[in-house]
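Sat 14:20. Reprocessing the chain from the morning session after the first attempt stalled halfway. Input below, unchanged.
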Amino acid sequence: MEIMGLAVIVILLTLGSLFVIQFVVLKPQSEIKKTFTQTQTAANTLTALLRTSTGCKGTTIIGLLDDCAKHPSSDTNNRICCLNSDSADPCVSEPPPPGKTVNGKDSCAKASELIEDILTNSLQNYGISNYEFRIINEDYYQPIDPIRAGECLQSKESKQAYFRTSAGVVTIYLDVC
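Finished this time. Tokens:
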């Protein structure tokens, strides 16, 4: 009787091992490669994006985001103003009304515009059409609205970057799906 019990235990362990081999060890390589590629693409894109020069007073995107995070929406007058030409037009923090053009954008508007343009162009080259970019500070204030393309219906790979401002630590997220 004891031998019969040991035989059942051995059979159950063998079946368990076969399932582990089937679903863990023999996982299709394409799934592993896709996940790795998405993770690396998110990390590299976020790093390159934050170091990109903006053409606005010698700042990078991280400089614009830093300025934007330091000056909340109630303090738009103290933000960096990025002018498209030598103009006396005031800076704006929101898109202009239809039919009206403006020459200047504040740091938040300029950063948002550049980030959306760069993400759209660079991630689509890698075949990634679903992503989300968002920025949150310690108080859960979002200096710029999240930038999204598509929906994440499957698993997503997320990368974060952190930087300190006088307003506290700001976290930047890039999720690719």
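The radius of gyration is 24 Å.
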